[in-house]
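Why does residue order matter? Because the sequence determines the fold. Keep that principle in mind as you read this record.
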Amino acid sequence: METNYLHTINSPADVKKLPLEALPELCKEVREFIIHELSHNPGHLASSLGTIELTVALHYVFDTPHDKLVWDVGHQAYAHKILTGRRERFHTNRQFRGLAPFPTPAESEYDAFIAGHASNSISAALGIEIAHNLEGDPRHVVAIIGDGSMTGGLAFEGLNNASMDKNNLLIILNDNNMAIDPIKGGFTQYLVDITTSAKYNRRRWQIYQWMLRHGWIKESNTGRWRVLFNSIKTFLTKQPTNLFQGLDLKYFGPAGGHNVLELVRILNEIKNHKGPKVLHIITKKGKGYEPAEQDQTTWHAPGEFNVKNGERLADSGKLTSPGGIPLWQEVFGETLLELAKEDPRIVGVTPAMPSGCSMNIMQRELPDRVFDVGIAEGHAVTFSAGLAKEGIIPYCNVYSSFLQRAYDNIIHDVALQNVHVVLCIDRAGIVGNDGATHHGLMDLAYLRPVPNMKIAAPMTEEDLKQMMRLAKDMTGPIAIRYPRGRSQQWNLPPVEVGKGVLLREGESVAVLSLGAIGMVVEEALDEVFRRKHIQREFQHWNMRWLKPIDEGILRFVGRNYRTVVTVEDGMTEGGLGSAVAEYMSENGYRCCVMRVGIKDQFVEHGSTKELYQMLHLDKDGLCEYLLSALEK
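Structure:
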């Protein structure tokens, strides 16, 4: 695309060379560039469209990378990438071996901190700010928090600490009233209700600057004057000091987030102000592209689309494929609604992902029994524990990588009390283009050591339905983990707690798989037969449960097989392979256990197909593992 300015921008230094009046046109060109690129290389569209003016203003005012910008969440940062030397490579964004999906310091010196999960920016930016102060090298540090991230508890912990320690941190609250879905909760309404007008704050700032220039006050004693200003404001508006001011954080706003010239003016005015401060800006997710403005949830990550008419292209977001095979999340959503209609004790709990996990299916019909608690995974788990303690049966759905943030809550609040919480763990295993921050590879390993925890992994659509139904009548905590993408179908015997099922008879090597990857094992066994015409060498068990594990299968395998292969789409350390190896060792079985899964590594971004191939967990890779096991 032809541009007047964007093609000349190879670093923020080039942005700073532009005349101020050129910035609106640069914003327009960045917006058109993002829309064009994401139309055929899908990514997070709406969030980044909402922060273009802010991004341009930040790089125009601050001296990056010497000054530090900490993004939260990374959905907002595409314009940042484009202006920091990655425009020419932006077409590789989220692709295998291409640009990372979120800011990451390993990719660029302009990325001050990794930004895959929400609510970490204030804590991280405060640490960066104080570190430079300790080194005698003070710099401007800015935390940009938005897309619902302020509902996370870590953000409030950071605010509290920022108010206590000596620092000059600038926190920019990008208030668009959205995460992926509209944000719920009291804090969101609180932001709506803040009555401090932009006009009032501008006048207060002007008076404050005038008093500084004329020597009436000094920076060292501005705290007393801030108290005076807040008292005057409370008297005039009959409203109390807002939360940020109550924490002794200087508050500016709310300001319009789509007027780049005004943002430049405000940032220049406040950047040298001593002490921690909050700039509250109002933005619109999807700004500048009408389809995204009208349906912000769908256009958070819309897939491929036609720029001219806003039509989303083939299978971009359809819940079912042409063959009618549903997504795993849709199976969960439909089954949860069915169970909830049967049992009034059942409720759904999700941390800001009702559409992402398909709990919105139940939400539409039984809205009073679905609780979207915002981006607050730890709270979601402990809230569920409170419900369960009083006889409610919560199905708490959290993405696998996000559940890591609630580990203490799982142990202390759920497992220790042995309360009946059903953890439905979506996006387990490799999730694709969102990369290392989003792959769900740790859950089996970190949940298995937790006392009282039961862990199941369905291989098929029917498995998931039956596990969810069984979970209703069980006791204590139950975790059911399933992957992203299309579910799989195969007629198997009914699910029993702690019992696996035999899929294939064989004489030389026992293969034990857990979860949906069992279907890939079956494809690999067919490939072994095609290559070597070997049909009766491999016995294949679908374990179904990691805990309690089927010891009957393990005893049979230990007595009858010298070689055992375990296959899982999680970390090999601590998961199924470790459980099997421990059992064999502790019970004196002298068999070789080959653990197949993810070794000690973080997995990069790319398509699911590319990543499974890279990890040798696709059909061909597993075929090679199986043949090597046969040689043993």
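The chain has a mean pLDDT of 89.
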